[in-house]
Amino acid sequence: MDEKFNFLAKYNFWDGNVPALGFARKNYTDRIFSYVGNKLVKVLVGQRRAGKSYILRQLAQRLIDSGINPQNIFYINKEFTDFDFIVDYKDLGALLKTYNSKLKPTGKKYLFIDEIQNITGWEHFVNSHSQDFVEPYEIFISGSNSKMLSGELATLLSGRYVNFEIFPFSFVEYTEVTSLEISKESYIQYMEGGALPELFVLPNEETKRNYTAAIKDTVLLRDIIQRHSIKDPRLLEDIFVYLVNNASNLISITNIVNFFKSNKRNTSYDTISNYIGYITDTFLVHKVDRYNIKGKETISGNAKYYINDLSFKNFLYPGFGYGIGYRLENIVYLELRRAGYQVYVGTLGSKEVDFVATKNDRLIYVQSAYLLSDEQTAQREYAPLETIRDSYEKFVVSLDDIALPPNRGIRHIRAWDLAAAL
User: Fold this and answer.
1) Cβ proximity of 16 and 49 under 8 Å
2) Pair type for strands 41-45 and 161-165
3) What pTM was computed for the model?
4) What is the pLDDT at residue 158?
5) Which of 3.30.390.50, 3.30.70.2750, 3.40.50.300, 2.30.30.40 would CATH assign to domain 2-165?
6) How far is Cα of residue 307 from the mean position of the Cα atoms in its chain?
7) How many whole angstroms separate alpha carbon 190 and alpha carbon 76?
């Protein structure tokens, strides 16, 4: 057990050791830290390599900066091979016992467990220790699967956890990392690259392409193929490629089935539906349902899919037709989600509104357009919003150099200024 404890010591904040903290993502740490000081389990979810590990370590460092003894911090990352000996929740419990025995920390302990879904039965550990009144613990966990809270833990911890979805860098974070000014030029650079944190320490396009491909392969293999015993891995990857190259388009599962059948690939509606579900569970792609603005209800059937980071398009499949307007729409979707909105595709009769976004008591309608280059184009983009008869906020977001004045209550926002408007 001494060797296992040494592994724990290697990655923790004890004796002046400070693990890599990365770029400070205050937008997330401020929000999460506001929940510190209670028994709520803090759950960080999101795609692999989106920055969850750095944020967990930044939270641990922030606790230390606020006066918490570093030895009261217990941090493990189940992605590290040094922790392969932790197979199930009993192994994790045994390591925690050794930690308590060796360090004898007094008062509340703070447990940070990264990629916890790789520990069998982890929910038993979390439920037990988060509610322990004899030895108080405060627990922070992360995972790369959206279904990690849909099972037993959600039942056991009903109302006793808070969930945070972590996305790749926003445009504002991108400008801070790159020391660029917020402008149209830097925004277009952002659109043409990727926002996964590790991309910013890689030297050239080739290494970025290889890195992005490795993430895609790891997620498909470890999080889907192995976990769900996928019988047709090639079909799974081809579906992912299809979703990437049709992002921002309204599509149906029947469309996808017919596409593969036209290419002599035998498959079924259920198989396609299941495979898409597995992909969206890993946060590589987001499904956005349609919303009937007049009837105020969601509509089943066709949906839109947006990729979690444009690096998958820009570095892996750049040869397929995918205009700048589609990329802009994808980024606008991600910006809305980062700001905490629930997002739908709006329909009103035969017209479509790109986004209906709700957050607490606020509802906004957002139309995304590449450029409002002439009066006819502007009329086309404003028309769906003009048909909406309620008084909620309405935005048109574009890459135009100059923000146009409000038109019938509809605000025009330059894309690089969107975050400030949300």
Assistant:
1) no
2) parallel
3) 0.95
4) 74
5) 3.40.50.300
6) 10
7) 33
